[in-house]
Amino acid sequence: MLELLDLRERGGRLEGSKLDLDPAVSETVRGILQRVFVEGDEVLIELAQRFDGADLSGSGILVSDEELERAERETHEDLRRALDELCLRLRDLHERQLPREWWEETDGLRYGEIVRALGSVGCYVPGGRARYPSSVCMTVIPAIVAGVGEIVLCTPPQADGSIHASVLYAAKRAGVACVAKTGGAQAVAAMAYGTESVPSVDRIVGPGNVYVTEAKRQLVGQVGIDGLAGPSELVIVADGEIDAEIMALDLIAQAEHDPQARTFLIVRDEQIAQRISEALQAALPRSGRRDIVDAALAHARAVVVRDLDQAIDVVNDLAPEHVQLVVDEPEKLLEGIRNAGAVFLGPWSAVPYGDYGLASNHVLPTAGTARFSSGLRASDYVTVSSVVQVAPEGVARHTEGTSAIANAEGLVGHAKAMDARARQVGG
What we know:
It is a single chain. The chain is about 45% helix and about 15% strand. It is globular and about 85 Å long. With about 425 residues, it is of the alpha/beta class. A six-stranded parallel sheet has the order 1-11-10-9-12-13, with helices on both faces. The protein has 16 helices and 14 strands. It folds into three domains: about 25-225, 3-Layer(aba) Sandwich (Rossmann fold); about 230-370, 3-Layer(aba) Sandwich (Rossmann fold); about 390-425, no CATH class.
């Protein structure tokens, strides 16, 4: 089941996945963006019919207050309670992540940074293969914590033109009132440009398929984005006494996400890989979403390394979305991990706990982008501006040096603007 890759003798490096978008997808998305820019709601209604089988011509694009109220009644009490608890956990997590305003005074300078919430954000929540009320909470709660003024949520409608009750309950509980029944590239375009029903926003966040990702890529600069998402990724480093059945279930849990989900099992002992592979074969008949799981596991790999130092090198080369350290003293390995969206320590720390908000947001960097980016944070919903106040004594103290640098760079106007002030204060 798990293809074996032995790096013990020959060494070598593994490359993380990269976004490889089909030119045909790019061209399709370009056309959709242009049509939404020109035609607005009309295109959203047309494409909801074509891609989702939903007729929104009568009900319109926006979810009504009545639909939100009905969703609360239709969501089972146990699920409501679980989503309420998820929202509380995420609030606690993201309240810790906001940058703080600060000030300093020295040598005639008063300077610092101010933190301001974005005016508006758009949260994209995918549909299609599954329903994702958790993604509603993951994208909306940090915006609420940051104090964003306007939040728009876009998600594809079901064939009957509705949004699943659990998704709408999560939206209401998280704190968003504007929910639009639109998905795909057209939803991203609507949030970027604005339509008759969907307000334009300053930043768009949330995972999506290749069309959503390509739309975000093409709109960089028109609107802020959180990142470009690829298939979900997991690297498990397993060593010592491990429970092969539990490890097999962790691999299946990851494979459920997407047929292209990437999973690597890194071990020092080839026998561990064999045991987990056998446990995987035994567990598969009881798994759900079998077609997706089988497709994802077809390109899973077991990597055999010389030692745990090499294992960490492999993790950093792959720069995965999730890393799971099922080893003795995982904290020691954590010190060497540089590139990872989220790290889960020890045999009890299953990645799905993070997917459902136990101390982590599940919108994380994929496609190797953990080399230079982080998971979704409350700080992504604010801007930080520098503030500078120069007193006369600061002009006298600093102008000689700053003017010298400006003249050296050939920016004489810069120097004159500072020198004039220095003359006025007698510097």
